[in-house]
Every structure is written in C-alpha cells, then in structure tokens.
Amino acid sequence: MKKKAVAVLVTAVMAMRMVSAVSVQAGIEDKTLIVGFDAEYPPYGYMDDDGEYTGFDLELAQAVCDLEEWELEKKPINWDSKDMELNSGSIDCIWNGFTMNGREDDYTFSDPYVDNSQVIVVAEDSGIDKLTDLAGKTVGVQAASAALDLLQSEEEGGQKELADTFGSLNEFADYNTAFTELQAGALDALAIDIGVAKYQLNSRGEGFKILDETLNTEQYAIGFKKGNDELCGIVNADLQKLADDGTVAELAEKYEISDMVTLKASDDASKDDAKDDTEAADDTEADTAEEK
C-alpha cells in the first residue's frame, strides 16, 4: 500500500510540473503577447487622432512581436487594477511607463529602459517656483501611480513630509482629466512623470511650467508576473536587438524622449556601425580617386 501511495504521489507531482510548464509556455506558444497599458498615458500609451492605440511603449512592444512573429494584443486597463489583471492572466505584462523602483519584489522586471523623474507642473503665472511654495496648495496626482506612492512614502527618499504641507492631495483616474482641472484653476499643481509632463506641455501649448526641483528619479521597466522569467528573458533579448539595430533610438526620437531612454546599442553593435561607416568612407574616397 505504501509503495502504491508513493507511486500515485510521484505521478501527481509529475503531472503538476507538466501543467506548470505548459502554463508558462502558453503565452509564448499561442504567439500572442497581451500587453496591459494605461490608454491615457502619452507618450507611452494613448489613443491617436485616428482612434488607434499607439505610443513609445506600444510601438516597442510591436517591434518585439515582429521579431518573434507574435501577435500583439493591446489591452487598455484601469491602472489601479493592474495587479489583478496580471495575476489573473488576462495580460502577460504591464508595459506602459511602469516604475520598477520599490516594486522589485512584487514583479519579474525587464531591464530598465527609461530614466524618469517625478516632477511638479504648475501654471506659469501661479507664483509657485519651488517645492516649498506648494504649502497649503491643492495638488493633483494619478491614482495608483508612482507619484502617489512617493508622496505617501515615509521611507528614505519618500515625500510624505512634503505632501503633509499641501492643502489637499487629489487623485484622478488619468492625467488628461487632471490637466483639465489644472487649466481650470481647480488645482494648483500636478505631481507627474516628466515624460508625460513634457508631452502634455508640448500638446497644450503655453501656460504651464515644470518646476526645476524634482521629487525623485526612477526607472521604467516591463513588469511580468513574479516568476515568469522565460517570457521576460525573451523580451529582454529582443529589446537589446532593437537597440542594436537602431529601432529604440528611432522611436525615442519620434516620441521626443531620447534624453530619457537608457536602452543603448551594445559595444559590439557600436563597433560594427563604426566599421560600416569607415568602410563606406573608404569606398567613397576610392570612387573619388577613380573619377580623378
């Protein structure tokens, strides 16, 4: 009886391992990558004038899918429900200006690809020029955002002490709504990621400014469910390929975040580019000499 019980137990364990392996592979083998993103978060993810979802992160995700011959499924999510979406398996990753700092133990993260600062945006004529000027003011922030976490944190580098000086800290579902409130004068300031702030200021024209003092500096990465190292590894390798072939730099320039992107071409790729440039120059000189 004992031998039979042990045999049954071993069989059950092996079956569980097989199921686990299949589940890990499922998102890869069905050739679909489901990306969860905030549809109100330009320039990383948003809806364009044609009604299509686009942005730096989504175009980069599409480039990865092109390399792997996967289909990209863009799934807009409520940002404060991102963990539920990821843990339930309805999305494969969170890829949309997602801050990794302070969350390293909660997700399996890709290599960081953007340096990001949390900043304060105010009206140009607000009279607010530094962080201490926010005392007694009404400040807006996106719900479940890194900026909100920062303003509620009492840990080293946190800004709860600053937030305690505010008249109030109001949460919004998205920054488009928050900017409308700022423009209307219902808010005195916004705590926001610098990339999103720059995009909003460029698209809305004059009337706003970013304070010189930043709240902190952080990094963006792609968040996978904890333990999904295989999918993360594939995406990481593809991101490096896209950095090496110039795709990352091209997209960064398109979305005006070149000064923030940290994903660079490898040393070997840089040497190859330099070699190609040298060979091209030599060919040009040879052609010129022949003409003479």
TrEMBL record:
Signal peptide location: 1-26
Record carries keyword Signal: yes
Residue span(s) of domain Solute-binding protein family 3/N-terminal: 32-259
Composition bias type Acidic residues, residue spans: 279-292
InterPro entries named in the record: Solute-binding_3/MltF_N
Keywords for this protein: Signal
Bias type Basic and acidic residues, positions: 266-278
PANTHER family: ABC TRANSPORTER EXTRACELLULAR-BINDING PROTEIN YCKB-RELATED (PTHR35936:SF34), MEMBRANE-BOUND LYTIC MUREIN TRANSGLYCOSYLASE F (PTHR35936)
Name of the protein this chain belongs to: Amino acid ABC transporter substrate-binding protein
Naturally occurring in which organism (per UniProt): Blautia intestinalis
